[in-house]
Amino acid sequence: MSESLSNQFKSSELCDFQHNLARSIAADRRALLEHRLYGQLQTLENLTAFMEHHAFAVWDFMSLLKALQARLTCVDVPWRPVGNAQVRRLVNEIVLGEESDVLPAGGAASHFELYLQAMQEAGADTSQMNQFIQQLESGKTVAESLEQTSVSPAVAAFVRQTFEVIERGRPHEIAAAFTYGREDLIPEMFTQLVHGLDRQFPGKVATLRYYLERHIALDGDEHGEMGRQMVALLCDGDACREQEATQAAVDALRSRIRLWDGIAQAMETAK
């Protein structure tokens, strides 16, 4: 087989895998996008309660990304070329946007830091997240930090599931969880709710609105496609890896649904 025909065949296999994976997660993705939680975010009080839980998902999104960078690129000295150069480029492009994105007034910040700014602006309580970060900085494990911070059971279960994927150390699984189960799933409906609250409470959710718009721009137009390419390249046509990546994507989506269930239930109980 000529090199050209071989490349076409491989490209066709990658597309088949991507289509099959998309079909496998379609029902869970739809359940998440149609979750009752979004209908509860009609007040600033409920929005800030949501943000206090959701901040942990923003944080562990960054942890998945840095796990990929650590495994797929060289972050040691002396430097050496590691793995597939195309995969390295995809990872580093995503890290650039997520860890050091541009700010409206100039400068740069990670999306996690931007989210904390949005929380403070909206009046959400950042103390639990700040305490969690302090526990990590003191040398505590993620599990110990979750326990010391007394996060809700829904948040703790969500973060633990993420770190089970990270600790297994399989790049194709980490990439699948990162790509198919993370922040690009915040629907446009949520953005429209925030726009409405921005009009109702001027100056309270402007930073959150910017955060969401950046995620739609980057994850929808750039990072989402980069992530899908990365998962396919890491599986490289291997049926076992493709099955593991698909399961990791399904598990990540179902974990997010359980988190959304927990947040919605907490709001209903408080009401």
Short description:
The protein has 271 residues and is mostly helical. The chain has 11 helices and 2 strands, in the order αααββαααααααα.
Describe the structure.
There is one protein chain. It contains eleven helices and two strands; from the N terminus they run αααββαααααααα. The chain has helices spanning 3-33, 44-72, 85-99, 111-122, 127-137, 142-149, 153-168, 171-180, 188-200, 206-235, 239-270, and strands spanning 101-102, 108-109. Strand 1 (101-102) and strand 2 (108-109) form a beta hairpin. Helix 3 (85-99) packs antiparallel against helix 10 (206-235) and helix 9 packs antiparallel against helix 10 (206-235). The longest helix has 32 residues, at 239-270. The chain is globular and about 50 Å long. The model is unreliable at 1-9 (pLDDT under 50).
Number of helices: 11
**Low-confidence regions:** 1-9
Structural class: mainly alpha
Strand fraction: under 5%
N- to C-terminal distance: 66 Å
Biggest β-sheet: strands ordered side by side in the sheet: 1-2
Overall helicity? over 70%
SSE series = HHHEEHHHHHHHH
Q: What's the main sheet like?
A: 2 strands, antiparallel
Integer-rounded radius of gyration: 19 Å
What is the global morphology?
globular
Number of separate strands? 2
Instruction: Report mean pLDDT, rounded to a whole number.
Output: 88
